[in-house]
């Protein structure tokens, strides 16, 4: 999914949790991407350009289902229990996991189930069908 629609997801979360600050919701829906950038700079993950097309290639740490679930649960636990703010904890956890869920629909099969099981990957590869990508991305953005 394009970054703008990950950010649009924050609007859905804001509607459900109107008292939460938008900045935290925006960070939550982009946290996985921020990790991906950091991991690329550190050499932990990598992308490649093949025939003029970017392939994310190896991103099992930032974009795995396992990492998304663990990060969501840990964030929820810290904010809900540690800071006694269950609504913010839930909103941020939803933002984090939403990134992985949306990417499973749009990405080529490069979303690992877990960093240590990167041979098992998910992705419906909608991004490879331009007309469908436009319909899905535009429709989702309008929906949000």
Note down, in words, how this protein is organized:
The protein has helices at residues 3-16, 22-42, 65-82, 86-106, 130-143; strands at 46-50, 53-58, 111-112, 121-122. It is globular, with a radius of gyration of 15 Å. By secondary structure, the chain is mainly alpha-helical. The chain has five helices and four strands; from the N terminus they run ααββααββα. The two termini are 14 Å apart. It has one domain (3-37, 60-143). Helix 1 packs antiparallel against helix 4.
Extract low-pLDDT stretches.
none
- Proportion of residues in helical segments: 55-70%
Spatially, the strands of the biggest sheet line up as: 1-2
Radius of gyration: 15 Å
Sheet with most strands: 2 strands, antiparallel
Order of helices and strands: HHEEHHEEH
The total of beta strands comes to: 4
Name the overall outline. globular
Q: How much β-strand is present in the residues?
A: 5-15%
* Domain unit count: 1
Total DSSP helices: 5
Look at the structure and give the mean pLDDT: 94
Specify the structural class: mainly alpha
Distance linking N and C termini: 14 Å
